[in-house]
Automatic annotation (TrEMBL):
Mg(2+) 2 binds at I92, D219. It is an enzyme of class 3 (hydrolase). Its EC number is 3.1.3.25. InterPro entries: IMPase (IPR033942), Inositol_monoP_metal-BS (IPR020583), Inositol_monoPase_Li-sen (IPR020552), Inositol_monophosphatase-like (IPR000760), Inositol_monophosphatase_CS (IPR020550). Pfam families: Inositol_P. Gene3D superfamilies: 3.40.190.80, Fructose-1,6-Bisphosphatase, subunit A, domain 1 (3.30.540.10). This is Inositol-1-monophosphatase. GO terms for molecular function: inositol monophosphate 1-phosphatase activity; metal ion binding. It comes from Penaeus vannamei. Its cofactor is Mg(2+).
Length: 250
């Protein structure tokens, strides 16, 4: 069946706003924390509750759509992207920030169809920043149209990155070496602690570049559409764009 992007967007937006209320309340309270791949890769009961809420609402509206959710995958579900409409969900991106009540945390929901992003919503409910995009219709922050900075000089660029959650010494060393090498070449380096918000920040023109090694599908499924719809460019470390890569991203 033909996908109604607007309907998908409307349903997702409504659910994300409801989920935002949960996050906004929970961030003020004591969190119930568990660890995942490392001692700094965290999940809270709010991550799980929000993911459940989003998946149950979306599957009620779109019974034949598929899902990739960060916490469902952590709990053992397969992470497979097919051509079928697939909602890719990070219930709380920036869980470490959320745990510390640092208000740079968001809900990220992307709908991909035929391995292309169709709808993207990234919502920071604490700071009330709603980033949205539908393919071909531009991207918006609280309804205001976004466009990237257009900066072309690395030396003038504010670059966002993330430290990541691996404590493997070799990976930590790579992250720190990249920072050491980049520092003298850029105008400034920042990490906000949420990949989705880092990418959305570039879409908003609040900085110029975002890079991250080891990003997961749910960290970028919505953000990349928000960024490309704002005139930005997304590629992997070999320079391939998602829809041009010979092997695809599936
Ligand atoms: C994490 C954040 C962080 C990034 C990690 C992600 P989570 O997502 O996006 O910025 O560096 O790689 O895992 O676990 O808070 O949803």
């Amino acid at each position: 069946a033909e996908i109604d992007a607007q309907k998908c967007f409307d349903v997702a937006l409504d659910l994300v706003k409801q989920a935002g209320k949960v996050v906004r309340e929970a961030i003020k309270k004591k969190k119930n924390i568990e660890t995942k791949s490392s001692a700094v890769d965290l999940v809270t009961e709010s991550d799980k509750a929000v993911e459940k809420m989003l998946i149950s609402g979306l599957s009620e509206a779109f019974p034949d759509h598929k899902f990739i959710g960060e916490e469902s995958v952590s709990a053992g579900e397969k992470c497979i992207l097919t051509d079928e409409p697939t909602w890719i969900i990070d219930p709380i991106d920036g869980t470490m920030n959320f745990v510390h009540s640092f208000p740079y945390t968001c809900i990220s929901v992307g709908l991909w169809v035929k391995k292309e992003a169709l709808v993207g919503v990234v919502y920071n409910p604490v700071l009330e920043q709603m980033f949205t995009a539908i393919k071909g219709q531009g991207s918006f922050l609280n309804g205001e149209k976004l466009s990237v900075s257009g900066e072309k000089e690395l030396g003038q660029a504010l670059v966002f990155s993330e430290i990541g959650t691996s404590l493997d010494p070799e990976k930590v060393n790579t992250v720190l070496t990249n920072i050491t090498n980049l520092m003298p070449k850029v105008h400034g380096l920042r990490g906000v602690g949420s990949a989705a918000l880092g990418i959305s920040s570039v879409a908003a023109g609040w900085g110029d570049v975002f890079y991250h090694f080891g990003l997961c599908a749910w960290d970028m499924a919505a953000g990349t559409l928000i960024l490309t719809e704002a005139g930005g460019y997304v590629c992997d470390t070999e320079g391939w764009c998602p829809d041009e890569r010979p092997m695809g991203w599936g």
